[in-house]
Amino acid sequence: MDEDEIPTLGEVDLIAEHISPQYRLAVYLQSGTGQRPSEALAFSTECRRSGFVRVRRQVSAKAHHDDCRTALVPLKHRTEGEYRDVPAAPVVEQEIDDHLSRWALVSVAFTGLRGRRRRLEVFFPPRRQRGKGVMPTAATFGCHFKKACAAAGVVDVDGKAKYTPGSLRRFFTSTALGNGVPIREVSRGSDSSGSGPLLLPRFHQWEAVTSIVAAAKEEGVGHRYLIEHWAGSGATNTIDWTAHGLARPHDAVGV
């Protein structure tokens, strides 16, 4: 399994079709709005807005513990109250409506980091475990995701899941960049707070992207290029930025 590989739209739909029905919406929240699994599982009525979704909480990794009082926590690297807004495509809106037609909302009480008790109507209800309801976590979704890949035949040569849940966010990023959405806006939508800092490339990423885009403009289509990155050096972002740079190239006459 290549953790940097991006699924096709057809593969995303196959995974959605074969995953446990209650998690189908989570597939489209990730692939359609760039949410992490833990963020998608925290989706509540306050997240759905007119034409967009507001991402402001995620399910804690400890949410499956019986004594967990902070099942819903702020976004990764963010403080309580920070959020990001992402436009919702019609397919995402339709999946939300379909989910509501099949599954009832569940009221979940939790303690915020400031000690204040809150209650939200969530889309993904707690599971029954040892007689007590516990929130599904990213690990829970990961298990269902692997089973869905196997059932859908989305597997590698060894018969293992071809993708990870994180591949759905990469699909969102790649699709957005490929359709001309500026990198700054994609960065805001997929990984930033409401204020949205700009994600800047490191030198090796900048060099790889600019070199390939320049070569493609000079040599034309049909060529292959190799990018060498070490583990953890941002290969996914390099691929995304390259895709963005090659999305709509044209020559001097506008072709």
What key phrases describe this protein's structure?
about 260 residues, alpha+beta, hpI Integrase, Chain A
Q: Can you characterise this structure?
A:
This protein has 255 residues and is α+β, with helices and mostly antiparallel strands. It folds into two domains: 9-152, hpI Integrase, Chain A (Orthogonal Bundle), CATH 1.10.443.10; 166-246, no CATH class. 40% of the residues lie in helices and 13% in strands. It has helices at residues 9-18, 24-33, 37-40, 90-102, 138-152, 166-178, 183-191, 203-219, 235-246; strands at residues 48-49, 52-55, 57-59, 72-74, 84-87, 106-111, 117-122, 127-129, 132-134. Strand 8 and strand 9 (132-134) form a beta hairpin. The radius of gyration is 20 Å and the shape is globular. The model is unreliable at 192-198 (pLDDT under 50).
Q: What is the third-level CATH name, the topology of the largest domain?
A: hpI Integrase, Chain A
The CA-CA distance between the termini, in Å, is 37 Å
How many distinct domains?
Answer: 2
Structural class determined from secondary elements? alpha+beta
Number of helices: 9
Query: Quick one: CATH class of the largest domain?
Result: Mainly Alpha
Strand content: 5-15%
Radius of gyration: 20 Å
Secondary structure elements and their pairing?
Blueprint: H1 9-18, H2 24-33, H3 37-40, E1 48-49, E2 52-55, E3 57-59, E4 72-74, E5 84-87, H4 90-102, E6 106-111, E7 117-122, E8 127-129, E9 132-134, H5 138-152, H6 166-178, H7 183-191, H8 203-219, H9 235-246
Antiparallel strand pairs: 1-2, 2-5, 3-4, 6-7, 8-9
Helix pairs in contact: 1-2, 1-5, 2-4, 2-6, 6-7, 6-9, 8-9
